[in-house]
Design brief:
The protein is mostly helical. The protein has helices spanning 2-33, 35-46, 57-66, 68-84, 90-102, 105-111, 133-147, 149-158, 165-186, 194-210, 221-226; strands at residues 124-126, 191-193. The radius of gyration is 21 Å and the shape is globular.
């Protein structure tokens, strides 16, 4: 038993190193691919100008990448506080909380950016399923799949009540309906589409499937399986 435990520790450490390396390589690839557009928006963002930074895709992406060290610091601070309080899985819980917020808010911000005819063009609604998928294109479909992907990936890790793909599907659809309704009410020159809701919810469900191995089990499962009740 001691030998198996000693062998599992290096294996877990290796997996963590590989996972962190893949994340770093992925971020480096993204930065390399969009380095020129980011450099174009960098002067406006560094100067604190709203126009040209926070109302453009390049500016939001740049500020998201710049804020990654702060997000990592938040994970570390939350995990340290939980470990001091004796909470188990402190790092996993902290990473899930920061990840689902930091990975969702910038993408939702992009969907709420007003178009050129905001406030002038009448609000548009598309309630026919699958009609707008052809006009989205691969980039549009991929972007909609990513909007709530972080929420679907990290929410089941953090909240045991959400450890179910149908529940994540409903959660993603609910948040997507809120976004589409806000676009319609605020007249942002965007089409509030049923297909957006379907694709956003599908992206959350696919991300939940990808994180299923890290969901874990509830603490009461071993007690129920062994037939032993909790101690008084």
């Amino acid at each position: 038993m001691n030998q198996s435990v000693s062998l599992s520790a290096p294996t877990r450490r290796t997996r963590r190193i590989v996972l962190v390396s893949l994340v770093i390589l992925g971020l480096a690839g993204v930065v390399f691919g969009v380095r020129r557009p980011l450099m174009m928006s960098a002067p406006r963002c560094l100067a604190g100008r709203w126009h040209g930074c926070f109302d453009t895709f390049n500016g939001v992406l740049l500020m998201t990448l710049v804020g990654l060290p702060l997000a990592a610091l938040a994970v570390w601070a939350l995990a340290r506080r939980r470990r001091a309080a004796g909470v188990t899985s402190a790092w996993r819980m902290s990473l899930a909380e920061v990840g689902m917020v930091y990975g969702t808010v910038p993408l939702v911000w992009l969907t709420m950016m007003p178009g050129s005819g905001a406030g002038v063009v009448p609000a548009r609604v598309s309630l026919v399923p699958l009609r707008d998928l052809l006009t989205m294109g691969p980039i549009g479909i991929g972007g909609n799949l990513l909007i709530f992907a972080a929420l679907g990936f990290f929410a089941p890790i953090r909240f045991p009540a959400l450890r179910s793909v149908p529940r994540i599907l409903v959660l993603g659809a609910g948040f997507s309906v809120m976004v589409e309704t806000a676009q319609y009410v605020l007249r942002l020159d965007r089409v509030s589409s049923v297909d957006d809701v379907l694709v956003n919810a599908a992206g959350a469900a696919l991300a939940a499937l990808a994180s299923r191995r890290w969901w874990g089990t509830t603490a009461s499962a071993p007690l129920e399986a062994s037939g032993v009740g909790p101690a008084a």
